Amino acid sequence: MKKTAFIIIVFGLLFGVNLKAQKTLTLQDAINMALANNPAINAGQSQIKVAKAKNTQAKSSFYPKASILSKYFYTNNLPGMYPLEGVNVPVMNNGTPTGDEITMHPMAPYPNLDRDVLTFDMNLVYPLYTGNKRKNAVALTHDLDVLYNKNLDETKADLVKKVKTAYYNYITINEVIKVYKLALQQFNRHLELAQKAYSVGVRSEFDVLNFKSKIAGFKSKIIELEGKRDVVLTALKNLVVLPAGDSVVFTGSINDMFVVSGLSTPAGLTHIQTNNYKVQSLESMIKLMGKKKKMEQAANLPVVFAFGNYHIYHGRDFPPFDAAWRNGYAVGVGVKINLFDGNLTKGKVDEVKAVSEKLQDYKDGIKLKLHFEYEKAVENINDLKTKMEAEKESLEVGEKAYEIAKVGYKNGVITNIELNDAQLNVIKIQTSILNIKKELLVQYAQLDYLNGAIN
């Protein structure tokens, strides 16, 4: 035994055989993996990080801004003031010369070719009043965070619905394949009976050929169903983001899922229109536009700010003080008022109003769409439940008819065509019931999605 296992491992290493254990996933496992790994979810989470970063930026306006600017350079282009030759100027008394004169030496600028300059400035600015622009900016980023969270919840709900739909299809196809394989076994038993009856001359060769034809048809149908199952399996793998090389089986039975779900009474329309994430997202966007409107309107309000400055410099004074260091400070309050911006602010405010109206109209449209989708899902559920009861009664009758047909064919009372018809009728009803159960689960998944459920 050990030797055999060793050989298997060696061959696996040599020829690249995938020795990984096959993963088995339930519906809840698939949902959890999709919510954890799907790129759409990761993108939504990144958007939330963007909103938080914008909130940090908005809050920064409540803190003073401090900056330092220092420069050292050598220049020959800064003017210096040098004394000119003295000039005698008469002394006047009430416009009348006194006869005395004084010598004055006026100053004139000349380039200083040898000057190095150092400047250092530290500035502090703090807005005292901005017309609530800062407050609304922080509130806007909060609404943006809510909006992105609602968008993420909408993405999650949509993803869960897709996983459920694909999963229900997958396990339903599995159940149908089981029904067809069971029918294939029964056809093989009927073929054995027909061959025995033909060998003793009780049945014709037509019976044998007919059963062989049905068996070939069922085998072909099973292959077709297995192909469809592989397509659905690929879709499920993509939704849960399984690595390409991983092997997985989704466990579960549509009958078990149908029993476990309970098919509870669906939420009311008002509840759905309140909880739906698309509606909530639009409401957040409308609130966001309200904050943005206030921010745009604040552009025409005065801004009051306090400022402080401390400076040190060298080489900027007139000679003969070039070598002296100077330092000092300045503090004060400033006011900035926009007198006219060419109606830019008005245009921005009007744009925000138009967007708000558009969002409100879109929200009303979404509510109408939810109304239609809710009514459609409820009608489908009621129709499917009615069909289910009818099919269950038909199945009871069909199974009894099939049992009678088997006895009748064995005793030579009926033909193989009648037996086939009885069996095919049971298969058809069984398959129909499975599909009805699947469709009911899909409709409830749709209602959960409309109601904003993430589970």
Walk me through this protein's architecture.
This protein is α+β, with helices and mostly antiparallel strands and 455 residues long. It has a single domain (17-63, 130-302, 337-450), classed as Outer membrane efflux proteins (OEP). 63% of the residues lie in helices and 18% in strands. It is built from ten helices and ten strands. A four-stranded antiparallel beta sheet has the order 2-7-9-10, with no helix packed on it. Helix 4 (133-199) packs antiparallel against helix 10 (416-450). It starts with a helix and ends in a 5-residue tail after the last helix. Residues 1-19 have low confidence and may be disordered.
Spell out the blueprint of helices and strands.
Layout (H helix, E strand, L loop, with lengths): L1 H14 L7 E3 L1 H11 L1 H21 L5 E11 L3 E5 L3 E7 L2 E9 L2 E5 L3 E15 L3 H67 L5 H36 L7 E3 L3 H8 L7 H7 L1 H21 L5 E12 L10 E12 L7 H67 L5 H35 L5
Parallel strand pairs: 1-8
Antiparallel strand pairs: 2-7, 3-6, 4-5, 7-9, 9-10
Helix pairs in contact: 2-4, 3-4, 4-5, 4-8, 4-10, 6-10, 8-9, 9-10
